[in-house]
Amino acid sequence: MLNRPKAILFDLDDTLISAYADPGPVWQALLSEHAEALSPHDPEELTAHVGAYAAEFWSDPARHKTWRLKLYDARREIIRGAFERMDILKGDPRLALIANDIADRYSARRDEAMTLFPDSHALLDHLKEKGIKLALITNGEAAMQRAKVERFELTHRFDHIQIEGEVGFGKPEEEAYHHALGALDVRAEETWMVGDNYEWEVIAPAALGLTTIWHNSHKAAPPEGKPAPHHTLEDLSGFWPLLKKTGLA
Ligand SMILES: [Mg+2]
């Protein structure tokens, strides 16, 4: 049985907006443009190393928190680190500049590729019309996240917008959820959390008593041995049947 929520907290990236699930092809295209300078390593091999290095880089929660607040620098750090590990940076000073160039162009391309998911605006507008209080809780840098909120016309769609870089705390810190609940003046038990990150938008909010909706936008395998979300959606269109069950659609 699904209770009608008083409020819903939404994540931003890969929940309401997204670029692409797999950054590999973009990395590979950019690495290919410098194939000569990077020879004898071929772009495919380099892409695999960058991907592995990035996965390791982001796997540590403390490092994640530090670097997601300066994402463009993080991408430079990842390429530099991957190249260093492959001994590519030894000898030729041009290669350090090439590494930065690849990282910066990756960032620009990713920003360009970012779009709204098809149902995002319709869903938010519908919920607002039904009187559901809405908050956006997003981790990351203040200017970068605020720019996306404005670019995708989300400001007026939310009663509360909470950006980690602006408030100084982020998911999965308990304060991130408590602060949003306080701002909307609702209790955890009457609130849903919607997002794609299993740690931040399923495990942490569920422990506080929120109902969790996992937007598995990249069709990931659910982690083993972790508490299940209350509901899983592969895209936002799956939200409408949930709302129907609560009389909200
Ligand atoms: Mg997300």
Description of the structure:
The chain folds into two domains: 7-18 and 115-245, HAD superfamily/HAD-like (Rossmann fold); 24-113. Helices cover 50% and strands 12% of the residues. The chain contains twelve helices and eight strands. The chain has helices at residues 24-32, 35-38, 43-59, 61-67, 71-85, 94-113, 120-129, 142-151, 164-167, 174-184, 198-207, 239-245, and strands at 7-10, 17-18, 115-116, 133-138, 160-163, 191-195, 211-215, 231-233. The strands form two sheets. Strands 5-4-1-6-7-8 form a six-stranded parallel β-sheet, sandwiched between helices. Strands 2-3 form a two-stranded antiparallel ribbon. The protein is elongated. The chain starts with 6 loop residues before the first strand and ends with a helix. The mean pLDDT is 96. Bound molecules: magnesium ion. Magnesium ion is lined by residues 11, 13-15, 195-197. Residues 11, 13-15, 195-197 line the site of magnesium ion.
